[in-house]
Design a protein that fits this description.
Blueprint: H1 15-27, H2 32-57, E1 62-66, E2 72-76, H3 88-99, E3 107-112, E4 117-121, H4 130-144, E5 151-155, E6 188-194, E7 197-200, H5 209-218, E8 222-227, H6 232-249, E9 258-260, E10 269-274, H7 279-289, H8 292-307, H9 313-326, E11 333-334, E12 346-347, H10 349-359, E13 374-379, E14 382-391, E15 395-404, H11 408-421
Parallel strand pairs: 4-5, 5-9
Antiparallel strand pairs: 1-2, 1-15, 3-4, 3-10, 6-7, 6-8, 11-12, 13-14, 14-15
Length: about 425
Amino acid sequence: MPNTERAPAVPLPAIPSIRALIRSLMGAALPLSLLALVLLLVPCSALAGAKEKVAKLAPSALVLVMDAKGNELVARNADKPFVPASVTKIVTAWLAMEVLGGDYRFKTRFFLDADRVLYVRGGGDPFLISEELARLANGLADAIGKEPITGLVLDASYYPGNLRIPGVERTSEAYDALNSALAVNFNTIHAVRRGRKVRSGEKQTPITPLAVSQFRKRGPKGRGRISLTQDPAISLQYAGELLAAFLKRAGVGLKGKITTGAVPQGLAPVYVHRQSRPLSEILTEMLRYSNNYIANQVFLEIGGHAQGGPVSLEKSLKVARDILARHDLAEAIRLEEGSGISRGNRFTARGLARLLHHFTPHAALLYGQNGGPHKTGSLSGVRTLAGYANTSRHGTVRFVIALRGNNGALRFRLLKAIESGL
């Protein structure tokens, strides 16, 4: 594609030359009124320079920069709706902090009947990874004793069987796995395949029969990760097998089968596992690694917590719309799901910049990705970047950048122009 960028008609001075000009004027014999006028005009020239540089780098980009008082320092196409991609996760994190709070912990409940059949009721915990399962198994073993259990029944009814997230069905990426009330390791299997032989790809994760069979069918040669997207029953079976493996390590054997079903009425829990990570830590991980599975687990819990189970996308969207409406953002922030995988999500830059103002107390959740308090978003033909930036003249500013195309590096060139030019 030919380069259509044009240089400005009049070259603009760089920041060092402006500073040199100030030093020379301070030493010149000028009237104080004239000197004050010149000094007043210098920041305006620098601001114009930042705007011109942004326009030159990306003439068709959507860019908005606002200072702490809400003044717009740079604004290009700021009311034009755009596809936010994973920048959506900032909105999900804000909604989660509003509804659930940073100290919220997901729960998984266990029930034991008179025949020592163990029932597990999933609560949508997005971080039931192997290290967490080891903790869980030890706590459960202490609660029920070391005598073998005669069956393991998995209850995933907190999530309806027909739950679907827009955009997930069209991808086979490992971290775009379908959401579930009871899933382990982000509903994925990490393994190593050499011919027909399959072993775990993680020292902390036991290999299970289902993991072997699934990886033989779909896994790459060598090391890799596959999602359990095709069949929720397979996902649930793997969760049961991995839980049974960790219970065995904790001294509790399984003599019966792993099945699915509902917890019997009137049976009280013998153990409730509270996720070791508070929600604030889960959100930090979600934002850092841009994990779509975690994002929608959290998004679904927003509705389930506010309106009661079972969860549904409709409940969460209603809660989100109500909160956005209270902040006059319902028209500017339109959600279809909580991760950004759907192209049906639509934001405006002014709406997202205003939401970033409300998110400011939680800005530390963004640190860790690309070295600054901001979030990237990428879909085919979409590159976005939003968050906070430090400038010399205007302090901390909020910014939103959205580009058409696949030039991810250009986002950061624009951010650098904003940081250096303001």
